[in-house]
Amino acid sequence: MEKQDCAVKILYALQEKMAIDLSAAINYCDSLIDEHGLSIYDLCAGLALSHVDARAYHTWRIPDTYFIAFVGSRWLGHFMLAKRQGRKIWVYDPLKGEALLSLFHFFMIWHKTLILLYVN
User: Fold this and answer.
1) Are the CB atoms for 115 and 70 separated by under 8 Å?
2) Contact, 68 vs 81, CB < 8 A?
3) CA distances for 106 relative to 9, 23, 41, 47, 99, angstroms
4) Using an 8 Å Cβ cutoff, are 11 and 29 in contact?
5) Tens digits of per-residue pLDDT, 34-78?
6) SS3 for 25-36, per residue?
7) 52-55 long-range Cβ contacts below 8 angstroms, 24+ apart
């Protein structure tokens, strides 16, 4: 397994997109990656170190800002970065790259397995 997993990759993408310093979060999260990847709890703790407010948000009320999408069970899974743009959602998946999806398509795929971390 590559040392830098999807959680750290989306932190780099978020840092670039929002032009904020997430070095504390990136260093913290990178140091905690094990054979299972990074947990959602560790990602939230890392974001807090960079003074970023991350909280769960209902999928049907996605704001027009960046959010971290977590797909998985319990605390381990796959992380993506997304942003609503009107009636579409831009998605950055570290495994598949970037895509622009309709809201309908996004919700049909992700609404049952998604935890949103609203990044303020």
Assistant:
1) yes
2) yes
3) 21, 30, 24, 25, 11
4) yes
5) 877 888 888 989 999 999 888 887 777 777 888 888 877 665 678
6) HHHHHHHHCECC
7) 52/20, 52/22, 52/25, 52/119, 52/120, 53/118, 53/119, 53/120, 54/117, 54/118, 54/119, 55/117, 55/118
pLDDT in tens, 74-120: 656 788 899 988 889 999 999 889 999 998 888 887 776 777 777 77
Can you say whether the dihedral through the CA atoms of 29, 16, 5, 59 is positive or negative? Answer: positive
Contacts of 8 (CB under 8 A, 6+ apart): 26, 29, 30, 33, 38
Q: For residue 114, report the phi and psi dihedrals to the nearest 5 degrees.
A: -115, 135
Distance CA 67, CA 114 (A): 11
Tokens at 52, concatenated: 């970023």
Residue 5, both tokens: 């997993």
CB count in 10 Å sphere of residue 119:
22
Domains identified in the chain and CATH numbers? 6-119 (3.90.70.10)
Tally of CB atoms within 10 A around 99 = 15
